[in-house]
């Protein structure tokens, strides 16, 4: 029962068309699934990833058109990161962001790696992380039809950052319940705040890290467009997921139990500071109901929603997602 790394991160957007434009054309990710939020089928759920949406490469967005602004603060997933192959790739991206008027910082070191922080059109906080010296979970394979040269393409998800008032409670869950191990720390960019602590699981490396930031100067976050809803961690298969469900129950955490998302199977629970965690299986995968060549082009619905297709499509605004 060892978590293999980060599975996916899910965030909120108020505009599926603008989101699709930014993440496919500016960042060069592939839309691997256009489906609906299974808890509210009136809105889109978009999945981006590498060439086939391998676990560990999936960045997903719920479209909530009337979502308010995201307010930064404690008890939140305060940043997510995306892996690139080298320090040279960061220089490419810095120039690309300058040309595209993408808000970004300078290249700087975080946790011993070169990084480049930037924001999307809604203020989503993202960090490009160089894998130049990385050892650990392998990255994905950029899609050959991406507008980004393959040697500079995004390889998958990097570390997620959790910002909390009292780090001790979150750390206890990560280490004693979920099996993460502390591997380092680095200074906060904010004066008079504790170091950010680095934890890893599985093979470790950029694809398997959680960075915990304790902040005493912030109010509670308020989730909205440009914010992160939850982070999911990789579980090998259903048998292991059911063992995790029992483990979470024994620890007396309220949880969702087994949830069938069709493309993977999940368990949801909140850690003590209120951040939503998900454990998700590596399979079955996104090519279960679509040909690999045509992923994301049409509205895909799990079999249990197919009888409602006409009603679901009637509530959704058309979204052209042809790529390449």
UniProtKB/TrEMBL annotation:
Signal peptide: none
GO molecular function: dioxygenase activity
Keyword Magnesium in record: no
Keyword Oxidoreductase carried by entry: yes
Pfam families: Glyoxalase
VOC domain boundaries: 5-131, 156-282
Gene3D superfamilies: 2,3-Dihydroxybiphenyl 1,2-Dioxygenase, domain 1
Top-rank lineage group of the source organism: Bacteria
Entries under PANTHER family matching the protein: RING-CLEAVING DIOXYGENASE MHQA-RELATED, RING-CLEAVING DIOXYGENASE MHQE-RELATED
Protein name according to UniProt: Ring-cleaving dioxygenase
């Amino acid at each position: 029962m060892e978590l293999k790394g980060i599975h996916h991160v899910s965030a909120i957007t108020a505009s599926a068309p603008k989101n699709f434009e930014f993440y496919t054309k500016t960042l060069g990710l592939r839309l691997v699934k256009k489906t609906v939020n299974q808890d509210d089928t009136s809105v889109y759920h978009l999945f981006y990833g590498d060439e086939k949406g391998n676990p560990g490469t999936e960045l997903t967005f719920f479209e909530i058109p009337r979502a308010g602004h995201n307010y930064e603060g404690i008890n939140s997933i305060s940043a997510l990161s995306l892996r690139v192959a080298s320090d040279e790739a960061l220089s490419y991206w810095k120039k690309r962001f300058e040309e595209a008027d993408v808000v970004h910082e300078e290249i700087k070191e975080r946790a011993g790696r070169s990084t480049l922080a930037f924001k999307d059109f809604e203020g989503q906080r993202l960090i490009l992380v160089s894998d130049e010296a990385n050892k650990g979970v392998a990255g994905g394979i950029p899609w050959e039809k991406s507008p980004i040269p393959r040697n500079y393409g995004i390889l998958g998800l990097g570390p997620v950052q959790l910002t909390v008032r009292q780090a001790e409670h979150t750390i206890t869950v990560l280490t004693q319940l979920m099996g993460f191990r502390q591997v380092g720390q680095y200074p906060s960019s904010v004066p008079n705040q504790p170091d950010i602590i680095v934890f890893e699981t599985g093979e470790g490396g950029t694809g398997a890290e959680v960075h915990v930031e304790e902040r005493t100067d912030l109010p509670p976050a308020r989730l909205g467009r440009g914010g992160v809803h939850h982070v999911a961690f990789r579980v090998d298969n259903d048998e292991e997921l059911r063992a995790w469900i029992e483990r979470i129950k024994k620890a007396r955490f309220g949880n969702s139990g087994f949830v069938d998302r069709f493309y993977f199977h999940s368990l949801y629970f909140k850690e003590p500071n209120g951040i939503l965690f998900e454990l998700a299986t590596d399979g079955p995968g996104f090519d279960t109901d679509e040909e690999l060549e045509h992923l994301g082009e049409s509205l895909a619905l799990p079999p249990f929603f197919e009888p409602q297709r006409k009603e679901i499509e009637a509530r959704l605004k058309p979204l052209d997602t042809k790529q390449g």
